Amino acid sequence: xxxxxxxxxxxxxxxxxxxxxxxxxxxxxxxxxxxxxxxxxxxxxxxxxxxxxxxxxxxxxxxxxxxxxxxxxxxxxxxxxxxxxxxxxxxxxxxxxxxxxxxxxxxxxxxxxxxxxxxxxxxxxxxxxxxxxxxxxxxxxxxxxxxxxxxxxxxxxxxxxxxxxxxxxxxxxxxxxxxxxxxxxxxxxxxxxxxxxxxxxxxxxxxxxxxxxxxxxxxxxxxxxxxxxxxxxxxxxxxxxxxxxxxxxxxxxxxxxxxxxxxxxxxxxxxxxxxxxxxxxxxxxxxxxxxxxxxxxxxxxxxxxxxxxxxxxxxxxxxxxxxxxxxxxxxxxxxxxxxxxxxxxxxxxxxxxxxxxxxxxxxxxxxxxxxxxxxxxxxxxxxxxxxxxxxxxxxxxxxxxxxxxxxxxxxxxxxxxxxxxxxxxxxxxxxxxxxxxxxxxxxxxxxxxxxxxxxxxxxxxxxxxxxxxxxxxxxxxxxxxxxxxxxxxxxxxxxxxx
Length: 498
Hints:
This protein is mainly alpha-helical. The protein has 21 helices and eight strands.
């Protein structure tokens, strides 16, 4: 008996049956595909099972070599359906029943259920009758109808891909972000057979991510909505378009999903081929959001009466904001520091931003650098703290910051600091640890420091300017005095609490 295989398409649910190989040439089809006409769940499975039984009977008749006739199956099916709809009808009879090459002879049904089963048999025969060859003086090869798409549903392919990422021990953040992008894809194009993915689907996905609101899963107005509903509301509210590098990330995740399907020949073509890519310059641009802290805000944040009670719970609460202010480093770059990242090079104490130890991440190649420690950081005893951590056998400088989710050590630090500054009166949306980076760059620029000199400290140099640094293990000893001199020109109007 043929096994039913369900297909979810934009037009609804369909069921597909494989035609036995010995009958394909005669029928001219590899598959019989039928609409479920709105049925779902158990009702769809029951109907599919009936159709499977009916098709099995049809295939049996075909193997007997029945002749072709010009019988119109639609009238017979309509007649049987009328009989099934009549609750008082006990028996229904038809004689000389032939559909295409299938000869059913005389048919008598007993009751409504028996009539329904016969209807399914008639429909199954009618589904393949148009493809049957007519008798002629010499055999004529049938013209095959388009083959129904093979392969898994998109939802199944996505689930397999995410499992593969996890099995390959990919970064949990990569898995999470891939799940997010592919959820949008599935929500936009529907649970189609993955072999049908086309340029139209890809373009619909790209349009969707252009209108996807930031933090949609966290915002009350969006988090309970489906993907199409999110997009409708986002467009109505005219949400800002994501940054170029965010859009490029979505493209990269889709490409990473498609490539294994191509390699395994699950799909025969790349649906992304021929769609113009974003320029490398636009895709690699680092988009910074937010603004610097004002002098009044810095003074409120580092006020001893507020800062010290908050900071005494964990060492990272005291040292991380100070390092952020006097280096412009990102929250993850500070939170992931190991004790061995703090070194003295050519007489200059500083810290490495790199990926030398477990769990460390960098934003891009330009982020690798050696950052000198500013004098105010040294004055409040940072090197003494590092030495104490070293003697205690600590590997990480701030071991109380977890990375259990795999999303980076900076996640908890960012949340804790954001909650703290709100209590200090800094309540503007988007203000947080990253504002130190803006403050650092802005005050140096206002002091007349060249942009390239600031970039050596913040890790903003473009690929060409960074080339010499890459060749020198990211330390570039020759420019250390310049970086120290640059750092000395950073003089925020705030003292460090002690």
